[in-house]
Amino acid sequence: MTAVTTTVHLLRHGEVNNPDGILYGRLPGFRLSENGRNQAEIVAKTLVDADLGAVVASPMQRAQETARPVAAAHGLEIGTDEGLIEAANLFEGELVSVGDGALRTPRHWPKLRDPFTPSWGEPYLRIAHRMLGAVHRARELAPGREVLCVSHQLPIWTLRRFVTGQRLWHDPRRRQCGLASLTSFVFTDGELTQLRYAEPAGPDYSREAGA
């Protein structure tokens, strides 16, 4: 019996228009920048020969916009899966980024009591479980083909660490999940057999650790 190989590509959305530099998380209204739209087009060209059977995206605007060029190139509708959404974060709307010292502000300290869970946002294990569910739902949409899922940096990186048996707590500055990058999960007869990473739009030199 021939093995069935299905690939689920997790695409991080492109660069976001965020002139104030806030941590936008799940806040509405954050669209792609011009550069982000260009990144989405590059990814679409990279995947033009892929045997895509479905395109699914997080409900966030930036993810939906990133999915459009790929879906259009393959004549597919964009499905939406809440499991792919950005992680919840109590710092939404704040001027907070990794390494800028903002987290030393005393009013933030109660939120930082548990960096391993974390206490300021959605627990890592919950993120991993919902992302794994979304990936398996995507896999079932097109057995033996490829599926594109558009999500966000922290959820993608958390799932990658989960399936490779690494601890989920980590240094955000060390995530290998650049803007418009592809983290691909290859399944053979439903079992994960390979994991690949690519940056079709080029390396991401931004210091933005979320989104």
Q: Tell me the overall shape.
A: globular
**What share of residues is helical?**
25-40%
Strand order of the largest sheet: 3-2-4-1-5-6
The helix count comes to 4
- Rg value: 17 Å
Say what the CATH topology is. Answer: Rossmann fold
Q: How big a fraction of the residues is strand?
A: 15-25%
What are the segments in which pLDDT stays under 50 over at least 5 consecutive residues? none
* Secondary structure tally: strands: 6
Average pLDDT works out at 90
Largest sheet: 6 strands, mixed
CATH class: Alpha Beta
End-to-end distance: 42 Å
CATH homologous superfamily?
Phosphoglycerate mutase-like
Query: How many individual domains?
Result: 1
Structural class: alpha/beta
Q: From N to C, what is the helix and strand string?
A: EHEHEHEHEE
Overview of this structure, please?
- By secondary structure, the chain is an alpha/beta fold.
- It has one domain: Phosphoglycerate mutase-like (Rossmann fold, 3-Layer(aba) Sandwich), CATH 3.40.50.
- It is built from 4 helices and 6 strands.
- A hairpin with a 2-residue loop joins strand 5 (182-188) and strand 6.
- Helix 1 (34-46) packs parallel to helix 2 and helix 3 crosses helix 4 (153-163).
